[in-house]
Amino acid sequence: MATAPRLGPGARQHSRRGPAIAALQPHQTLRRNVAHHYDIDGSLYDLFLDPDRQYSCAYFEEDGQSLEDAQEAKKRHIAAKLNLSDGMRVLDIGAGWGGLALYLAKTAHVDVTGITLSEEQLKVARDRAAAEGLSKAVRFELCDFRNLEGQFDRIVSVGMFEHVGTAHYRQFFRQLDRLLTDQGVALVHSIGQFDAPTATNPFIAKYIFPGGYIPALSEVMPAIEREGLLTTDVEILRLHYATTLRHWRQRFRSAWHTAAEKFGERFCRMWEMYLACSETGFRYQKLMVFQIQLAKSVDALPLTRDYMTDRERDLRARADQTRAARS
Prior knowledge:
Order of helices and strands: HHHEHEHEEHEHHEHHHEH
Radius of gyration: 19 Å
Helix content: 40-55%
Strand order of the largest sheet: 3-2-1-4-5-7-6
């Protein structure tokens, strides 16, 4: 296993809390914004997320696919794009409750460091790694991405870039460039806009994701170019998040009585409004999800995209075999 990355000044590391999501607002503001949403009582998320607590856009390979299967397909899709090999060091920026990092460690012989700024998510992720016997292969730390030092063969970031802010995009991609090895590859998965840049929805900004911002590609691509990274692949997921949000809202409504007893009717109305507005945004208001693959070297990846399809097919077959064996 690779040695743990070093943490720069300002990072915290102790028995239960160590390096995490990298949003590039002022440190105290960022931590407060993260806590506002992600340090809510974790039982809330059990009401509407899949058991792996994937709190980002699922990947629906076919109509009628279950949320659980679509979230597994999302992790499989990302793993295929990363083109992992045995022994690689992988960084997961904004690791959430640990699902993707654990998936990567289980499906490839890689060493994963997951970082977050949510103390609640950190505790759950570490407990999950211990329960699955993966504490040596996967480390979760409480850390600002800006304070992280070391070298990684692969970097993945899912649902974190929305917290960076346009003024800090170059700093974000500069840090990716600094942390990647010469043959390294990164994948950034983020909500985006088809349209020109616009302001954050005021309801979402006040009550749900303070400090969040949904970028247009016209704001992201210049920052990548100026920091010298190579854009090796771009994929746009159009209605996948609308479908994900519909699943979440239906599950939340089914659990309304439980949620109201714990969080109150006012909170439930606000949360349903958030899920409904978000689904509308992806279905009718030009929101989408983008996945941008980046590299430092022009020969860091195979010549054609076939490796993605082949790897995804292999991972799907392995998952089907595992399910068949269990049944």
